[in-house]
Write a structure and sequence with these properties.
The structure is a single chain. The chain is of the alpha/beta class. It is built from eleven helices and twelve strands. A five-stranded parallel sheet has the order 2-1-3-4-5, sandwiched between helices. It has a four-stranded antiparallel sheet with strand order 6-7-8-9, with no helix packed on it. Strand 4, helix 7 and strand 5 form a beta-alpha-beta unit. Helix 9 packs across helix 10 and helix 9 packs across helix 11. The longest helix has 21 residues.
Length: 304
């Protein structure tokens, strides 16, 4: 029997032209398909390759499972990605970390899956057929507070900022290391659990009441204003540190739970959206004041 030929190496950026977002997406998919081809051609089971790289145990076959194995799932994830090979690889890999993942191709299938089953986190690709990831992120945030991790082959800061402003909790650029996907999911869920365990039910300030369970602002006249995860975390940081000047870096680290690049100024957009929901005049703000060259100050009265 003739041994199958090894797949060709991935083309370099210089050989294929400028390394723009399109070539980045193509290279990312080639990288995933390269691993898949190695598995299908029989060089080694893919779990052995990943186990050797990450020191993880081999998966259990369905025939070998016991009733106790059904209880091992600690996290349930929904992966929305139209690239089936990549999606299936992610599902198989996450299973070894007690993350039970289900995969769908587009927004319609995502909505049906969420109606039929409870999920702890959504892994959402930005580039989807029909309704794109940004539109689906907006819909998810309007309907629930489920954590959202966005996947994107686009490297432009604007795309990442828009996704985060629409309510995504974090993002990853393709191609990525599968172990990082696991780490980010675990970090997001740990942060959400910590947030919910430390929050008080209702906080009053000025003419507003913040419901920290439903993540809503309630005005004295009964008006209910929903908040995205990022907006809620930012407001919570302000409430915990009133009348203190906080830098953009401090606010972003607390509101999004990760370090940021020096050029990333998405906190300005997030503050603008929060001001709008609070009815704070951007030209003469009374609640969230800008301290030129330093950051922002939350100047609310009677917090409690």
């Amino acid at each position: 029997m003739t041994r199958p030929q090894h797949p060709r190496p991935l083309p370099s950026a210089t050989a294929t032209g400028p390394y723009n977002s399109t070539s980045r997406l193509r290279a990312g998919r080639l990288c995933w398909n390269h691993n898949l081809a190695a598995y299908l051609c029989g060089w080694q089971p893919i779990w052995q390759m990943n186990a050797r790289m990450h020191n993880t145990p081999a998966p259990v076959n369905d025939d070998q499972k016991t009733p106790a194995d059904d209880k091992r799932w600690s996290i349930r994830a929904l992966i929305v990605d139209d690239d089936v090979p990549i999606r299936e690889l992610m599902i198989d890999y996450l299973a070894r970390f007690n993350i039970h993942a289900s995969g769908v191709t587009d927004g319609a299938a995502m909505r049906l899956a969420m109606q039929a089953e409870h999920f702890d986190v959504v892994v959402l690709d930005l580039m989807l057929p029909g309704e794109d990831g940004l539109s689906l992120c907006r819909w998810l945030r309007a309907e629930s507070d489920i954590p959202i991790l966005m996947l994107t082959a686009r490297c432009e800061p604007t795309d990442r900022i828009i996704g985060l402003e629409l309510g995504a909790d974090d993002y990853m650029a393709k191609p990525f290391e599968p172990r990082e996907l696991v780490a980010r999911i675990q970090t997001i869920l740990r942060r959400v659990r910590d947030d919910r365990s430390e929050q008080r039910a209702n906080i009053r300030f000025d003419n507003w009441r913040l419901n920290s369970v439903l993540r809503q602002l309630i005005a004295d006249n009964g008006l209910v204003v929903p908040l995205s995860n990022a907006e809620f975390r930012l407001l919570w940081v302000f409430i915990e540190r009133p009348r203190r000047v906080l830098s953009r870096e401090q606010l972003l680290d607390a509101a999004r739970g990760r370090s940021i690049e020096a050029f990333d100024r998405s906190i300005d957009l997030l503050v603008s959206r929060l001001r709008q929901k609070l009815g704070d005049d951007p030209k003469a703000p009374q609640l969230i004041k800008t301290v030129r060259g330093e950051g922002y100050l939350f100047d609310a009265r009677d917090i409690g």
